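Let us work through a complete example step by step.
Step 1: write down the sequence.
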Amino acid sequence: MTPHWLEEPGAPVTALVDGLPDAAAAADWIDTYRDPLRSVLTRHGALYLRGLPVRTAADFALVRDALFATRAKYQEKATPRSDFGDDVFSSTDLPPAQAIRMHNENSYTLTFPGLLLFGCLTAPAEGGATPVADVRRVLDGLPADLVGRFRRHGWSLVRNYAEHISLDWRTAFATDSRADVERYCAANAIDVTWGDDDTLRTRQVRSAIVRHPRTGEEVWFNHVAFWSEWALDPDIRDVLVGEFGRDGLPFNTALGDGTPLSPEDVAVLDAAYERATVRRAWQPGDLLLVDNIRTAHGRDPFRGDRKIVVAMGEPVALADCAPSLPVTAPALAGRA
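Step 2: predict the structure and record it as tokens.
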């Protein structure tokens, strides 16, 4: 059953499939058409599959295994997710009214998923799309001076782990051992500072611009805008800064040399993402396959029940992406 391809302005390219009886047949269909599907993904960076009989997390896992050669781990957890078993998770368990800004999954780790697969088990009544953005276009749309600063210095991420403001360190690193956290961080170029009340502060520096390991194209690959203090709602930011200080925010980003970002910098990044963003409303059974290095993703606010699952696959090492600056461990230890 050859897919019918749908290309519309403002939406990801979509393969329309019809007539398959169950998830096992869908997995067989994907296995048959894997090469042309991956070819389309290489050209476009993201691909919808519509009409497949994917109704449960188990169905989703079955078609995931037909698409991915290997699974990828979710490392340095940053947002709450539900675990449905078999490496299938909820996309993110954040309040429906909250938009999730564009980002490349796990851009702050030294190994990250090369592919993401999203699946719609329950479509929301309103909103809730998973928009995607071509990060080649994002990079091309940024001012040369801003790109130059990030190319020279990379970007830094500071995280504060505490139950009352973010994920605690035990959840983020999947361990109860401080020694395990320190070993992981030492091996992954992360500076560690333990605080009072069982809190943890980490800092890491990464390249903001990398090259796709298959195509060699440069892309804007990071969480700079996503986790900037200027991405917070102003009222929430004022409360958090007032209580914890700028160094105590759950997340914050800067240039790799520690130079803070301005609100104007983040507005420029947001505008570049918006110009490159496309979206399609979810329908039950839809799948969205994403090249995580070529394409950023986010989430629109929504109303009603929404159940979107996600799986990660085909891990890629940062070292294989020609990062614009070397990674050392620990990363610029001691700088704020």
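Step 3: interpret the result. The CA atoms of residues 5 and 15 lie 5 Å apart.
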